[in-house]
């Protein structure tokens, strides 16, 4: 039986932080990556009606979710959703 990985838990941090990686079993400082999330999708739908906002929904970092990963094994250990 293959173990199913759950979604990473919500974390309030925008910047890398020290945490425990369950896969590597070490304490490490996370690496952050910005990804498009629900807020980007909602802004895209809004852009269908108001095209002047199209530039902001995918280019602006402030609208993207932040995923924290272990630098050793690249396992997601946390996520900060904008919505």
UniProtKB/TrEMBL annotation:
LITAF domain boundaries: 1-82
Chief location of this protein within or outside the cell: membrane
Subcellular localization: Endosome membrane; Late endosome membrane; Lysosome membrane
Keyword Manganese applies: no
Keyword entries, A-Z: Membrane, Metal-binding, Transmembrane, Transmembrane helix, Zinc
InterPro entries per record: LITAF (IPR006629), LITAF_fam (IPR037519)
Ranges that cross the membrane: 38-59
Gene Ontology CC terms, in alphabetical order: late endosome membrane; lysosomal membrane
Membrane topology, as annotated: Peripheral membrane protein
UniProt KW Metal-binding keyword: yes
Example of a GO MF term: zinc ion binding
Family note: Belongs to the CDIP1/LITAF family.
Name of the molecule in the record: LITAF domain-containing protein
Provenance organism: Caenorhabditis nigoni
Organism lineage: Eukaryota, Metazoa, Ecdysozoa, Nematoda, Chromadorea
